[in-house]
């Protein structure tokens, strides 16, 4: 009974994670400028990765693998925001600006 | 199933690389290509190879190509010459290979000749003969350790070649390096400094746990070097150079290779064949253990030192045209 | 006790010296160490040739693991013979290297230069000594990477592009070889050449085997600079430092020829290789094309190094032609020319190193009147050139003689004509040199200024070897014939 | 049809190899050639590794119990080959930097033109 519950939870986490990752991928393609796209990518890194790793942790049960997975999660939570930050800053320095709404509208029409 | 999807991705990425003109994007795609390949390696049970491909293809190669682009140019010109001859050559080559596949054993067929002759010996005997449960490590560092010595020599050769080519173009102390931009970012510096000890620790784990799990001297060396490269990026190339002077790096590069050969010579002096670890101790298993340990250490040292000196050589090239 | 470890020491001794070079700071010690390592390797090769001649095949299991599981070194007359060629050329070239390098390469690069040189030597020896197909690939890459580095050291910026071009073509070649080895492994489950040879007849009908053969053949041909895959060679030989040209011209392509012989005759077996594909016709056609095309190109060169580089492509044609006959005299000619061509080309490129040392370049204008200003150097060039043409009393004559005999044996009179015509073309380009050297006076009035003795003596050692071995042929012919018989014996009668 | 199921893996690898090979021999940009070379080699690595796979097998790290393992030998060979590949790439990149310094370009076409005009 417990096993089934855990496996359902794990499945739910994995599916949610994958779904979010998909939406962010779409966002990456559809968003108008660099910063909004990066927003999509950055969030996907932390949230999706978190959900997926948790899903895997539930599947692995309590073992050395779980510990390793948690380490991976910790590592990701440190590095991906930092990477997003560095990227945004580099973009800002390189002269990328947030695009105006009107421009987007005109370019879409 | 996973295989089919990954292979499809690979094909798409490869075609994109062929079609695109922006070199920067191509390099990024190449990194993705390597990472996908690593994924396929895992699904094909080659965990050690996947580890290496991820570290090398997606890591080292990509960094090297990127730093080359930074020193050259990122747009590719439209080529003018004809595509017909290359296409013909490629089609003939491909046709020869496809012709060859017609008589190949089916994919993952356990009855294929590859699984009948030499490999079963490794799978059945290697643990008793070498005491190492990771058969890949056992074959790499004992049965075919001579190949691995060649591999270390290749790395050493490449290191020397890069130094020969680039050392004349070192910029001098007074010129400010452009690459250490990151050292002005407090956040990056803080996070990187937090991470570096863990990276080095992980490298040590990979180095010494290679007997039992995926990993070994080469992967550890790459990770170890990556730690120092990160240090170089956030603290500054000049500081890293102070830590690893040229002569110190030369010494390290040479000593790893010499350690490897030395193990062979000692086994020869003790009355065995070259690289026969059995003679190191009364108990052959213990001898194997020592031999594999030392040899992997040699690999790790040379790879670390070479990677660091290659990185430094690339980042110290003068930017002036 | 030492004698039983000779096969592995052959490769390991130069290998140890390579990292040591990096640690030595005194430049005089560098040269002594490299020379000592190369000399030791030459002595070992000599001893191995004796051993192989008296006791047949020497097998050495590295790491103590028996053959198909571990890597085996397998020395017979053929590899011992090639090992001797490589080590002796390397030793004589190193003898001259000190002076030439002092002039052509900045001092800060010396440790790395000697180190690369020794690594290249190690790689070439490793390819030759090993009995394991994958080990060939590993050592091939050691020798290739170090030779890319060595070539790029030339002073002209075209050395860089030459090195890059060689790198791309060489890596394609190596990857083709890797594919070929992989397909062989797929069919048999083994990598040991001897083991492969015994298991391949069982799968002789397989299409995969044919494809493996094609890939190995093309891959090795790229490394060998077999026409029309020779494009990298002229640039690489022309722009690399003189010493490197002399070393590579004498060794690298020779080892590639050895690998081709080893795979065709030992691994696949001549029966397979010559029956499944019209290999005789393919080899002869390519060889004839190489001889004609490259000799004619050589005539039109204005850079003398480039001239001799094209002539190398032509001479490789003769070497390949001998294989095509599939007879003892044909293979003997191939093996003889392997040695003889190494001697000639090393001598010629060393003589050019002398010219370069004094004149700064080796264009045709630089040799004007050289017969008077540098008589010994120019005499060396002329004698080497005559050997290239195949004048009696030189080694060139001996190998061409055997080649012609092999052609007549099988009634290929057209080929006889082509061999003679090729020699005629060689005479044309050698004569152009002689004319410039003896019958033109140099534009400026140079004082008589011979190259330094440390360059001249090794050059003349090679020139004299060219003549001595052209008169007393017992040494080379004995070994070459024995090796040729061994190769064909394997082809005819199954296991050796 | 069964041939297709048995061999489609190999055919995709061959396709990848040929894309890489095509990039090497058709492109004029020196960096892109090397990337093509890497794609070519990586596809060859895939070919090797796939021949070591055994249906239902697992990574060749010996565990207790009756398990079937994939063939470890191709893994060892490819580990070595990957290292050789990165060594070649590093050397090639250093050469390209030098070529750029000497010629001011990394396009084969321009380099030929400069050499020809000498």
In the residues of chain D, how many domains can be counted?
1
Order of helices and strands of chain A: HHHH
Tell me the CATH topology of chain D: Helix Hairpins
User: From the helix content, strand content and strand pairing of chain A, which structural class follows?
Assistant: mainly alpha
Shape of chain A: elongated
Largest sheet of chain D: none
- The residue-averaged pLDDT of chain A reads 77
Strand content of chain D: under 5%
Report how far the terminal alpha carbons of chain A are from each other.
56 Å
Specify the number of helices of chain D.
Answer: 4
Radius of gyration of chain A using CA atoms only: 18 Å
Describe the protein.
The complex is a heterotetramer of chains A (109), B (321), C (496) and D (118). With 109 residues, chain A is mostly helical. Chain A has one domain (2-108). Chain A contains four helices and no strands. Chain A is elongated and about 55 Å long. Residues 102-109 of chain A have low confidence and may be disordered. Chain B folds into two domains: 1-75, NADH-ubiquinone/plastoquinone oxidoreductase chain 6, subunit NuoJ (Four Helix Bundle (Hemerythrin (Met), subunit A), Up-down Bundle); 134-321, no CATH class. Chain B has helices at residues 2-19, 23-43, 47-71, 84-101, 119-130, 135-143, 145-166, 186-209, 217-235, 237-243, 246-269, 284-315. In chain B, helix 7 (145-166) runs parallel beside helix 12. Chain B is globular. Chain C is mostly helical. The longest helix of chain C has 32 residues, at 328-359. Chain C is globular, with a radius of gyration of 21 Å. Residues 491-496 of chain C have low confidence and may be disordered. Chain D has helices at 2-26, 30-52, 72-103, 108-116. Chain D is an all-alpha fold and 118 residues long. The mean pLDDT of chain D is 87. In chain D, helix 1 (2-26) runs antiparallel to helix 2 and helix 2 runs antiparallel to helix 3. In chain D, 75% of the residues lie in helices and 0% in strands. The interface between C and D is medium-sized, with 25 and 32 residues.
């Amino acid at each position: 009974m417990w096993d089934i519950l855990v496996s359902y939870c794990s499945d739910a986490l994995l599916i949610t994670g994958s779904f979010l990752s998909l939406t962010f991928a779409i966002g990456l393609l559809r968003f108008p400028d660099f910063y909004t796209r990066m927003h999509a990518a950055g969030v996907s890194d932390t949230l999706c990765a978190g959900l997926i790793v948790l899903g895997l942790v539930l599947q692995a049960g309590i073992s050395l693998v779980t510990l390793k997975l948690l380490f991976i999660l910790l590592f990701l939570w440190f590095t991906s925001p930092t990477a997003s930050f560095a990227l945004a800053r580099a973009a800002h320095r390189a002269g990328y600006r947030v695009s105006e709404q009107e421009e987007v509208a005109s370019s879409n029409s | 199933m996973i295989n089919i999807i990954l292979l499809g991705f690979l094909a798409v990425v490869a075609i994109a690389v062929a079609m695109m003109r922006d070199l920067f994007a191509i390099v990024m795609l190449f990194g993705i290509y390597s990472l996908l390949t690593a994924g396929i390696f895992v699904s094909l049970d080659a965990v050690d190879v996947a580890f290496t491909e991820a570290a090398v293809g997606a890591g080292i190669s990509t960094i090297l190509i990127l730093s080359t682009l930074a020193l050259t140019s990122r747009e590719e010109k439209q080529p003018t010459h004809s595509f017909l001859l290359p296409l013909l050559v490629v089609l003939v080559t491909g046709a020869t290979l496809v012709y060859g596949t017609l008589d190949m054993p089916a994919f993952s067929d356990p009855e294929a000749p590859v699984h009948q002759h030499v490999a079963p010996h490794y799978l059945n005997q290697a643990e008793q003969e070498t005491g190492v449960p990771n058969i890949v490590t056992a074959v790499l560092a004992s049965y075919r350790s001579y190949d691995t010595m060649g591999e270390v020599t290749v790395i050493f050769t490449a290191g020397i070649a890069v130094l020969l080519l680039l050392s004349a173009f070192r910029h001098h102390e007074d010129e400010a390096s452009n690459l250490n931009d990151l050292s002005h970012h407090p956040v990056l510096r803080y996070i990187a400094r937090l991470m570096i000890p863990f990276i080095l620790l992980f490298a040590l784990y990979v180095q010494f746990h290679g007997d039992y799990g995926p990993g070994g001297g080469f992967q550890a060396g790459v990770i170890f070097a990556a730690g120092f490269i990160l240090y170089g990026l956030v603290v500054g190339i000049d500081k890293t150079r102070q830590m690893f002077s040229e002569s110190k790096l030369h010494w390290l590069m040479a000593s790893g290779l010499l350690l490897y050969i030395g193990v062979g010579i000692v086994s020869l002096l003790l009355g065995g064949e070259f690289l026969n670890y059995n003679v190191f101790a009364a108990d052959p298993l213990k001898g194997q253990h020592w031999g594999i340990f030392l040899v992997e250490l040699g690999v790790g040292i040379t790879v670390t030192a070479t990677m660091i000196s290659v990185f430094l050589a690339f980042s110290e090239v003068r930017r002036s045209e | 006790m030492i004698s039983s470890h000779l096969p592995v020491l052959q490769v390991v001794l130069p290998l140890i010296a390579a990292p040591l070079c990096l640690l030595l700071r005194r430049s005089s010690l560098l040269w002594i160490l490299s020379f000592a390592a190369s000399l030791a390797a030459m002595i070992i090769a000599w001893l191995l040739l004796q051993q192989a001649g008296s006791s047949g095949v020497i097998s050495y299991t590295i790491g103590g693991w028996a053959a198909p599981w571990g890597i085996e070194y397998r020395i017979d007359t053929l590899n011992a013979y090639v090992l001797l060629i490589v080590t002796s050329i390397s030793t004589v070239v190193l003898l001259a290297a000190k002076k030439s390098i002092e002039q052509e390469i900045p001092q800060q690069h010396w440790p790395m230069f000697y180190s690369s040189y020794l690594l290249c030597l190690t790689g070439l020896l490793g390819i030759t000594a090993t009995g394991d197909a994958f080990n060939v690939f590993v050592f091939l890459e050691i020798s290739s990477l170090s030779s890319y580095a060595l070539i790029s050291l030339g002073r002209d910026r075209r050395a860089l592009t030459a090195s890059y071009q060689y790198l791309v073509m060489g890596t394609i070649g190596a990857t083709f070889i890797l594919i070929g080895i992989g397909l062989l492994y797929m069919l048999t489950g083994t990598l040991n050449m001897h083991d492969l040879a015994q298991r391949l007849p069982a799968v002789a009908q397989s299409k995969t085997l044919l494809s493996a053969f094609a890939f190995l053949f093309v891959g090795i041909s790229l490394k060998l600079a077999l026409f029309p895959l020779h494009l990298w060679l002229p640039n690489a030989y022309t722009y690399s430092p003189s010493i490197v040209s002399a070393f590579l011209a004498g060794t690298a392509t020779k080892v590639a020829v050895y690998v081709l012989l080893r795979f065709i005759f030992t691994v696949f077996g001549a029966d397979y290789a010559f029956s499944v594909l019209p290999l005789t016709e393919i080899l002869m056609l390519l060889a004839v094309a190489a001889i004609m095309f490259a000799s004619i190109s050589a005539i039109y060169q204005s850079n003398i190094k480039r001239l001799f580089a094209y002539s190398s492509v032509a001479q490789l044609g003769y070497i390949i032609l001998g294989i095509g006959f599939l007879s003892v005299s044909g293979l003997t000619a191939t093996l003889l020319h392997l040695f003889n061509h190494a001697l000639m080309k090393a001598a010629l490129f060393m003589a050019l190193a002398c010219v370069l040392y004094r004149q700064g370049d080796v264009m045709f204008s630089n040799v004007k009147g050289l017969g008077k200003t540098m008589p010994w150097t120019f005499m060396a060039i002329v004698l080497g050139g005559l050997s290239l043409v195949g004048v009696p009393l030189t080694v060139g004559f001996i190998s061409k003689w055997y080649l012609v005999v092999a052609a007549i044996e099988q009634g290929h009179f057209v080929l006889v004509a082509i061999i003679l015509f090729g020699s005629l073309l060689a005479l044309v380009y050698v004569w152009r040199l002689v004319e410039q050297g003896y019958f033109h006076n140099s534009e400026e009035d140079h004082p008589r200024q011979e190259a330094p003795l440390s360059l001249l003596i090794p050059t003349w050692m090679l020139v004299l070897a060219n003549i001595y071995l052209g008169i007393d042929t017992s040494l080379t012919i004995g070994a070459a014939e024995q090796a040729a018989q061994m190769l064909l014996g394997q082809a005819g009668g199954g296991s050796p | 049809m069964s041939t297709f199921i048995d061999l489609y893996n190999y055919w995709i690898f061959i396709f990848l190899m040929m894309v890489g090979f095509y990039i090497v021999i058709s492109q004029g940009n020196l960096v892109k050639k090397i990337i093509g070379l890497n794609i070519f080699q990586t596809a060859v690595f895939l070919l090797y590794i796939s021949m070591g796979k055994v249906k239902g097998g697992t990574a060749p790290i010996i565990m207790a119990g009756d398990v079937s393992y994939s063939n470890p030998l191709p893994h060892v060979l490819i580990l070595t080959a990957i290292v050789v590949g990165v060594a070649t790439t590093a050397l090639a990149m250093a050469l390209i930097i030098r070529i750029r310094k000497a010629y001011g370009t990394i396009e084969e076409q321009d380099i030929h033109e400069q050499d020809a005009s000498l």
